[in-house]
């Protein structure tokens, strides 16, 4: 049995601050009417939206463009049983405006895999939730 006295709900600003500290998260979406999760590197834009950079022909782009998705990132330390998790929920859209694409080419995330037809996907931060657990200990 675990006590949860170390559990804390995070406000939006705390969630965004923590998201900015980690390079990898997970996109949660629907693929062929089933739940799918894909780890991706990302960054936050100035408007707090989550930005992904991928290939224009990727299955991910086809599955999420124009659709509401969830994005989750976290950081945990098993030794201290502490960490946090943040979920951003919002509509994902491919960035099509040339000036915006150019700006993101300079400031946005860089794909960890080689791509030749890069696109940026923006996930609006319509709903941002998070929680933190700080050093809860197991009880016998």
From TrEMBL:
It comes from the Bacteria. It comes from Streptomyces sparsogenes DSM 40356. Pfam families: Pyridox_ox_2. InterPro entries: Pyridox_Oxase-rel, Split_barrel_FMN-bd. This is Uncharacterized protein.
